[in-house]
Structure formats: structure tokens, C-alpha cells
Design brief:
Elements: E1 27-30, H1 34-45, E2 56-57, H2 66-70, E3 75-79, H3 84-96, E4 101-106, H4 111-120, E5 124-127, H5 132-145, E6 158-164, H6 171-186, E7 190-194, H7 202-206, H8 214-219, H9 226-230, E8 234-235, E9 241-243, H10 257-269, E10 272-276, H11 288-291, E11 294-299, H12 303-316, E12 324-331, H13 340-347, E13 353-356, H14 359-368, H15 376-389, H16 396-409
Parallel strand pairs: 1-2, 1-3, 3-4, 4-5, 6-10, 6-11, 7-9, 7-10, 11-12, 12-13
Antiparallel strand pairs: 8-9
């Protein structure tokens, strides 16, 4: 629906906005404060001045919110700081239609209202006053992310945790690329959770931004379900969903049942859940390691690293022996004169996986903020992901046979 002006009675409609990914999208502004609503409408129009101004709908005049949904409104910007209870009721009604995206705005910066709006179905929460660029970015995020909501009817997913025997072992690089490989090769829903708090950088490693973080999930764990979780996630170009660590430093409370609830909600929503746990031994106080399918213990071939790995295996993970798989990262055969026999002796268990040392590939990843492209490292991690998902790898003989058959059919 296109509007060319403003009613004297304040009844509302939308605006066709031909800008980037929101071309042709119909928009409505709902605000009990008529002047502020007009100001927001002007900001929306300024994204692509075309002489059409959306008419502002007063919240008191909304009546049945389904009317807006039935008019085919794509996006509703709704003020939520005047009549909060009625605003939330309207949001829930509009979101239940499945046809309308809700963006809330408020002059109140409190977190409680933000969380309530997110739970009701809001995809963007904006603090008023805001500039044109703020709304513009909100619409671009809507256009780019598509449908973020995972299917909540799926069977419980399979989960994996990456844990470092020592800081700097390369846990995040391994976890990120493992998660990307799972998402791409399995074609199943996959989530990466950054629990390396407070300074985790999985999102930075993958080059994705996020308004919300793992800390938001843990702080509201009592309200955490599949719907709420979906609103906290970012999406990587591979299809991988990411629950990022906070972008700024925050004091993190000791982990507890909140971690367990987060993993449970994640496994109810996704086929695969990958956790970057850094080297956080305090996570031993949670059920994280009990709940996951596989614990990938990442270490390097060095005296300090092997010593720490030994202590983790024999003292911390002793009860999880059957699910622990050792990953030798940045591996070079016989480095420092330490051969495989010496490594196994130091670890007390064999190392199942070896990720080769490829400094140039990792630096490219860090500078381009994306997963490792085809490289020795990614091929090794891809084998780990294939084994974890149960996908059958092609052996050289199978590849030769397939190539021969293709020639016969040519």
C-alpha cells in the first residue's frame, strides 16, 4: 500500500520504499505520540525521497492489529514506551500472522522492555531519537538475513565442544571452520556458540556482526526457548548461525545452570551445535561436557601444551574418556624432535586429528574475516566435520571410479 500524505485523524498505512533490499516494501509507523510518529515517518521517507509520506497510525486507533496484517504491511515500526502492555499485545498479534516484521522503538533504554519485545516477536529494537542510517541498517539486516527462525519441531541435535589445553592453541579457528564445514556439507541447520567469555572472537573470525550476544542469552536463561534464542543470532554466508561473544568487555558471572539451558535450547532448535569453550575450566561446573556428543581437545606439539593437555585429560576429562578426541593443531611431523610415539606417551591417549601448520592461510582468514578457503587446514577440518556428521568421504578409489564412469557417459 502506498501513501501520499497524512490524515488529519492519524489513521495509518504504509509506504513503498524503493531502496536496496527493501525495494517495494510496505511500511507503517505506529506511535501514540503523533509528533514523534511524524518525525519517524520523515526519517523513513528520507531514505529515498519520492514525495510519498507514510501516514502515522496512533496506537489508540489501531483497534484490531490484524487489520494492518491483512493490508499486506511488510514492516511495522512501533513505539513501545507509552502504552507498553497494549504495544506488546499488538506486536504479538501482528507477529502471529507471520506476514509482518516488527521493529520497535523507544526512548526508554531499559533492557527489560527490549527483552519483552524480542520475546513477542520484534526483530529490531531501536532507541529513539535515531538517525536515518539507523533505520536504513535495520532494513538492510532484514533484507539480508531472511528467515532466522529454526524449525523447533526437529529432533534433538548433536553437539560438539572445542576446548583448548592452553590459551592460544587455535580453538576458535578450529571451531569456526568446523562449524562452517558442518553447515555447508551436511546442508543441515548448524549453530556456533561462543562461550569463550568475555573476550571470545568467533564472530570476528567469521566476519559477522551481532547486536546480541551469548551474555544476553545467559542473563535471561530462565526465559530461553527456541523463539527467544533465534532472535539473538547472526547468520554467516554459509548458512551457519552464530551466537557471538559480547563486542565489549563485560564482567561475566560464574557459569551455572544458564549454560545448560542455553545448550538445551540450542539442541532443540538445530541439527548441529558447535561450542567454542576457549580454555574456560570453570565450565566444568556446568553440564556442558556431559551434554555434548564429542569433546575436541585442541593442543599443539610443545612441552607446555602437551603438559597441560595431559592434565586436562587425566584430571578434568577423566570421566569423559570415550567422547574426548585430541586435535593436534599447527602440526608438523617430528617438530622439536617430538615424534608421534612421544606425543601419545605424553597425552596418555592417541591423537585422532592433526591440523597441519599453514600460517599463511590463517593470516588470510584473519585479514579477510572469513572462514579458511581451500587449504590444508580446511581439508583436515573438513574430514573432522564429515566424521562428526556421519557423511561418507570419497576415497581415492571411489573418485577414480566416478571419474571413469563420467568419461564413459561423455
Amino acid at each position: 500500500m502506498t501513501s501520499s500524505g497524512s490524515d488529519s485523524n492519524g489513521s495509518g498505512s504504509g509506504l513503498n520504499l524503493p531502496i536496496d533490499g527493501v525495494r517495494g516494501m510496505s511500511i507503517a509507523v505506529v506511535d501514540a505520540d503523533f509528533e514523534r510518529g511524524n518525525a519517524v515517518s520523515a526519517i523513513v521517507c528520507s531514505m529515498r525521497p519520492n514525495g510519498a509520506t507514510p501516514r502515522v497510525t496512533r496506537l489508540a486507533d489501531v483497534g484490531n492489529p490484524q487489520v494492518l496484517a491483512n493490508q499486506g504491511i511488510d514492516v511495522v515500526l512501533m513505539a513501545v514506551d507509552r502504552d507498553k502492555e497494549r504495544s506488546l499485545e499488538a506486536i504479538e498479534a501482528l507477529c502471529s500472522s507471520g506476514k509482518t516484521t516488527l521493529m520497535a522503538y523507544s526512548g526508554d533504554t531499559g533492557d527489560d522492555m527490549l527483552i519483552q519485545c524480542m520475546r513477542a516477536g520484534v526483530r529490531e529494537f531501536l532507541h529513539y531519537p535515531f538517525e536515518q542510517g539507523v533505520i536504513q541498517e535495520a532494513f538492510r539486516r532484514k533484507a539480508s538475513r531472511g528467515q532466522l527462525m529454526p524449525d523447533t519441531k526437529k529432533a534433538k541435535g548433536k553437539s560438539f565442544v572445542f576446548f583448548g589445553a592452553k590459551g592460544g592453541s587455535g580453538v576458535t579457528t578450529a571451531a569456526c571452520n568446523f562449524a562452517v564445514s558442518l553447515a555447508q556439507e551436511s546442508k543441515r541447520s548448524t549453530l556456533l556458540i561462543d562461550l569463550d567469555l568475555p573476550l571470545g572472537d568467533a564472530a570476528l573470525c567469521l566476519g559477522v556482526g551481532s547486536e546480541f550476544s551469548t551474555l544476553d542469552a545467559l542473563n535471561k536463561a530462565q526465559d530461553l526457548d527456541s523463539t527467544f534464542l533465534a532472535k539473538l543470532l547472526s547468520q554467516h554466508q554459509s548458512g551457519l548461525r552464530v551466537l557471538a561473544a559480547p563486542g565489549k568487555y563485560h564482567r561475566v558471572p560464574p557459569p551455572g545452570e544458564s549454560v545448560d539451558r542455553l545448550l538445551a535450547a540450542a539442541c532443540e532448535s538445530f541439527d548441529y551445535v558447535v561450542v567454542d569453550a576457549g580454555s574456560k575450566l570453570e565450565l566444568m561446573d556446568t553440564q556442558l561436557f556431559d551434554l555434548v556428543s564429542t569433546i575436541y581437545l585442541v593442543t599443539q606439539v610443545g612441552i607446555a601444551e602437551l603438559r597441560n593437555a595431559n592434565r586436562v585429560i587425566t584430571e578434568c576429562f577423566q570421566a569423559y574418556g570415550s567422547k574426548v578426541e585430541v586435535v593436534l593443531n599447527r602440526y608438523t611431523a617430528d617438530l622439536f624432535g617430538i615424534n608421534d610415539e612421544a606425543i601419545e606417551s605424553a597425552l596418555t591417549v592417541p591423537a585422532q586429528w592433526r591440523i597441519p601448520n599453514d600460517f599463511a592461510a590463517v593470516r588470510r582468514m584473519q585479514h579477510t574475516t572469513g572462514p579458511l578457503e581451500d587449504s590444508k587446514i580446511q581439508r583436515a577440518i573438513g574430514k573432522m566435520a564429515a566424521a562428526a556428521s556421519g557423511l561418507r568421504e570419497e576415497t581415492p578409489d571411489r573418485k577414480k571410479k566416478a571419474g571413469f564412469l563420467r568419461l564413459l557417459r561423455a
